[in-house]
Every structure is written in structure tokens, then in C-alpha cells.
UniProtKB/TrEMBL annotation:
Pyruvate binds at residues 45, 203. Pathway: Amino-acid biosynthesis; L-lysine biosynthesis via DAP pathway; (S)-tetrahydrodipicolinate from L-aspartate: step 3/4. Belongs to the DapA family. The lineage of its organism: Bacteria, Pseudomonadati, Pseudomonadota, Gammaproteobacteria, Oceanospirillales. Keywords: Amino-acid biosynthesis, Cytoplasm, Diaminopimelate biosynthesis, Lyase, Lysine biosynthesis, Schiff base. The record marks 44, 107 as: Part of a proton relay during catalysis. This is 4-hydroxy-tetrahydrodipicolinate synthase. The active site is at residues 133, 161. SUPFAM superfamilies: Aldolase. Homotetramer; dimer of dimers. It is an enzyme of class 4 (lyase).
Length: 292
């Protein structure tokens, strides 16, 4: 079972929008050196919505090859077409990914029965550990706790990223699934609370820029050290907030550029962070020593 700090890795890009493979290698090494426990390749933060299928698959394979077994790689393979999700998940399996992260189908608003049948089809089709991903604020589709419990009975389902930020909701999911699947936070400000409530880790945006601190935070929470985890989280709150001054991954990509790790490349319809927010992001990073 994957536990701890799981970075939702950005996909670095050149100014012309092409994937920056050298920068991707630097980021992977940066995370391994700083205690990140696992990497998600091509999730929401990795601009899965703007990479084409070929690029999507190439990035997953590249990350798997660069990591070379040093930590688990989770491939983002969700789609609002079940057939496409199966195709991406099978490609990730063939590429050697350790697990897949499958966001709820966005835009087409499936019913709860539709969500069950969607995940059943993927779990039946591809023999790889699969993590559900519920983020209704982005998908307009909310996988209810009772549906999570039902899907948890399927083969290959090993976890859920619960990104509502609602701790009571997360506790309800944890109570329903018990030890059947792992529950991960998808909300940085409340991640330590979810872990203390019985969660297994955090799939994180903030970890892109503060990998060591997020790793330490998750370890403290997993060890039940509530007060220490709370204190560290409070130190990180300004960065948590800064990562969402505009839509993710706009701020985190600019932050990593400010840190000198990547360029400013991002794909339309996303744009580079607006000038009015840059001081806030820079100052939050500077307070924790991420930039000078």
C-alpha cells in the first residue's frame, strides 16, 4: 500500500508548449532527493486535460523509466469516456506504472450507477491497482460515500483520493471502506487531519514546491503526532493558499519557475500566473526557504 506524501507532479513545458523532458527529469530527481513517497504522473496538476493521448502516455512512460523503481509511480488515467480511460490505464500498465489514478468522469455528469459501472468496466479490463479520485469542484460529479463503498468491493480498487476538503465527509468514507481500500487526501490544507482520522497519505499540489515539508507533515500525521503535524501545517498554510490564487496548476508552475526548476511553459486555455499574484506566491515560498 502506498502511503505518505504523493506529489501530483506538474508536466513542465517549454515556451512553445512542448513537454520539457529535461526539466521533468530534474523534478523527478528533486522529489526523490527530498523524501517524496510517490509520484502521480499526468494528473490534473500535470495538465492531463491539455496533453493529447500520445503525449499523456509518453509522459507516464518517461516518469516510470526515470524513477526506475526508486519509488512508486501512479499514472493519471481518468477520462470522461470509459473506453479512453481503459486505453490509458492499459497503456500505463504496460509502461510499468505501479497504480493508476482515475478521476470521476467530468462534464457528462454520470449517475451514481454510471460511476459504479464505469469503474467496474475499468477494473475488469485492466489488472493494475486503481485509485478512485473524487473532486466535484472540478468535475461537476460527486462520487457519494455509499458509491465509494460499493466500488471498493471491486477487484483492483485499492484507494480513493478524496478532494472535497470536507473532513467529516472523509471520515464517513473511511468508516465505510474500513481496511478495504486506502483513503488519501486531495486537499493540502486539511490533509494532516484526514490522515489523523485514518487516512493513508496526501496526493499533493504543495509537495511540488515543498517536498520535504510535505513528507515530514505526512509522517507526523501517520505517527499520530497531531500537535506537531498541526504546527507544521500552519507554517505551510500561506503556500497552500498561494497554490490556488488562480486555477491549479497555474500558480504551482509559476512557483517552480520562480525556484529555477522549470520554465514558464503552460498550455492554453491556461495562462502564466498574473502579475498581481506573483508577490504573494514568491513571499510564501521565501518564508519557508524555497526561494531567496
Amino acid at each position: 500500500m502506498i502511503t505518505g506524501s504523493i506529489v501530483a507532479l506538474i508536466t513542465p513545458m517549454l515556451d512553445n508548449g512542448k513537454v520539457d523532458w529535461d526539466a521533468l527529469d530534474r523534478l523527478i530527481d528533486f522529489h526523490i532527493e527530498n523524501g517524496t513517497d510517490s509520484i502521480v504522473a499526468v494528473g490534473t496538476t500535470g495538465e492531463s486535460a491539455t496533453l493529447d493521448v500520445k503525449e499523456h502516455c509518453l509522459v507516464i512512460k518517461h516518469v516510470v523509466n526515470r524513477v526506475a523503481g526508486r519509488l512508486p509511480v501512479i499514472a493519471g488515467t481518468g477520462a470522461n469516456s470509459t473506453a479512453e480511460a481503459i486505453e490509458l490505464t492499459e497503456t500505463a500498465r504496460q509502461s510499468g506504472a505501479d497504480a493508476c489514478l482515475l478521476v470521476t468522469p467530468y462534464y457528462n455528469k454520470p449517475t451514481q450507477e454510471g460511476l459504479f459501472q464505469h469503474h467496474k468496466a475499468i477494473s475488469d479490463a485492466v489488472d493494475i491497482p486503481q485509485i478512485l479520485y473524487n473532486v466535484p469542484g472540478r468535475t461537476a460529479c460527486d462520487m457519494l460515500p455509499e458509491t465509494v463503498a460499493r466500488i471498493a468491493e471491486l477487484k483492483n480498487i485499492v484507494g480513493i483520493k478524496e478532494a472535497t476538503g470536507d473532513i467529516e465527509r472523509a471520515k464517513q468514507v473511511i468508516d465505510l471502506v474500513g481496511d478495504k481500500i486506502a483513503v488519501y487526501s486531495g486537499d493540502d490544507p486539511t490533509a494532516y487531519q484526514l490522515i489523523l482520522a485514518g487516512g493513508h497519505g496526501n496526493i499533493s499540489v504543495t509537495a511540488n514546491v515543498l517536498p520535504k515539508q510535505m513528507s515530514d507533515l505526512c509522517k507526523l500525521a501517520l505517527e499520530g503526532k497531531a500537535e506537531e503535524a498541526k504546527a507544521l501545517n500552519e507554517e505551510m498554510m500561506a503556500v497552500h493558499s498561494a497554490m490556488f490564487v488562480e486555477s491549479n496548476p497555474i500558480p504551482v508552475k509559476w512557483a517552480l519557475a520562480d525556484m529555477g526548476l522549470v520554465g514558464l511553459g503552460i498550455r492554453l486555455p491556461l495562462t502564466v500566473l498574473q502579475e498581481q499574484y506573483r508577490t504573494q506566491v514568491h513571499d510564501a515560498l521565501k518564508a519557508l526557504g524555497a526561494v531567496s
